[in-house]
Amino acid sequence: MIKRHPLLLLLLLAAAPLRAQTPPPAAHTDPVLAATLDSLARGFHGRVGIYVRHLPTGRSAVMNADSVFPTASMIKVPILLTLFDQVEQGRLDLDARVPYPDTLNYRYVEPTDVVGYMTAGDTLPVSELAFLMLTVSDNVASLWLQALVGGGAAVNEWMDAHGFVQTRVNSRTPGREAARSVYGWGQTTPREIAEAMVMIREGRAVSPRASQRMYRMLTNSYWKDVAVSQLPPTVQAATKQGFVDRSRSEVLLVNAPTGDYVLAVITADQTDESYEPDNEGYRLIRAVSRAVYQHFNPDDPWRPLP
């Protein structure tokens, strides 16, 4: 057996030609899927925006994908991105315990807003605030993190610097009052919020290590009764929802058997403002989620229970 010196091996490897990385496929319209989504959205009482892209093949379908819609709680994804960017820079520490500020002045505490029941002087680690923001969509934790990263302006600067021209925080952000009156806490487009999820999935958000940690957080949502309910329980999805009276939304990146795909569905100006399970917006999101999964995974026999 011929022995090779380690230094010789390194020189041989350095001299070997590098294999070019295969670029992702360009997005192109899937006419069958586009027709299906058009049929599902037809007759909806309100505005609808949809963006779908199958990452391995580039097959896509869009509907008002570049129109601006309210984010509701989906704005927590941009807050998360800004948080991890500041952690990467050493400006914040995920393990640091921070004292609860009595200046948030948030009056509408939901039953799942764990942090809303804290009092001045109580502390939590920054990482736990991020967990609560994403897992149970704790609004108080989210506003606390928004303040910690420097407010909505800091989030907007990060999004703008990374090519997201419409995704913005409006609430508690000077100069965004007019936009807040129209869109509420935040605004985005189906394409932008979906591609923010893709950026995280592909390790391009902040750093590969930060992207992995953010992605793990996004797969832990407590809220699984809308889009995720239409996926097999064995299929993982990173997801964030946003629900307010006249807008229902969800963005999810699904690790499906035939390859990852991203889906964003956002409604606005709904006439159905109820929060019952059969709200028209919820029904649309479920129908779209089910149709997209079955379209990309036609050989999977699993179907959601009625």
Question: How would you describe this protein?
Answer:
- The chain is of the alpha+beta class and 306 residues long.
- The chain has a domain at 26-76 and 180-296: Beta-lactamase (3-Layer(aba) Sandwich).
- It is 36% helix and 17% strand.
- The chain has ten helices and eleven strands.
- It has helices at residues 6-15, 31-41, 76-88, 126-135, 139-148, 152-161, 177-183, 190-201, 208-218, 280-296, and strands at 28-29, 47-54, 59-63, 69-70, 97-99, 123-125, 168-169, 186-188, 237-244, 247-254, 261-268.
- The strands form three sheets. Strands 1-3-2-11-10-9 form a six-stranded mixed sheet, sandwiched between helices. Strands 4-8-7 form a three-stranded antiparallel sheet.
- A hairpin with a 2-residue loop joins strand 9 (237-244) and strand 10.
- Helix 2 runs antiparallel to helix 10 (280-296) and helix 3 crosses helix 5 (139-148).
- It is globular.
- The termini are far apart.
- The relative contact order is 0.16.
- This is Beta-lactamase class A.
- Its EC number is 3.5.2.6.
- Residues 49-267 form the Beta-lactamase class A catalytic domain.
Report how far apart the termini are.
Answer: 65 Å
Series of secondary-structure elements, N-terminal to C-terminal: HEHEEEHEEHHHEHEHHEEEH
Average pLDDT, rounded to a whole number, is 92
CATH superfamily of one domain: DD-peptidase/beta-lactamase superfamily
**SS strand fraction:** 15-25%
What's the β-strand tally?
11
CATH level-3 fold name of one domain = Beta-lactamase
Spatial strand sequence of the major β-sheet: 1-3-2-11-10-9
